[in-house]
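Hey, I'm writing a tutorial for new members on how sequence and structure tokens pair up, and I'd like a real worked example in the thread rather than a made-up one. If someone can provide the structure for the chain below, I'll link this post from the tutorial.
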Amino acid sequence: MLWLGPAGATSALHFDLHHNFNVQLFGRKKWVIFPRAQQDSLYLPSTLRLNHFSPVNYEAPDLATFPKYRYATPIEFVLNPGEVIFLPGGWAHYVKTLEFSITLNYWFVTWRQYIGEKFTRQYLRRKLSKIWRPGATAATT
């Protein structure tokens, strides 16, 4: 994903399911990240329609409505041009563009995650049996 944005653009506090490399190509962005273990303090997964978004407004948290948020410990830093952050899946984050910015985002899953999320051995066998038969040549499949 290629992100282009003006100064002041923000993302809501959220997490992604998959690991993420975020490459800052131009401009600077402020990042605020929270380890996966703090999801409960961020009310994640939430009751929102997109439950990977937190109902907490990072810039103006309502502690009366979201009292557990006071126990969250944000890690804040600025990502400069040429820098890369690796963000593990499940880590919540809030991002604010500090100046016109170009960013490249690459989400990925490990083989173990892919197999665990999408397939079982039995499922793979059924799928493969439809396209490959032992002993068959390319001309007969």
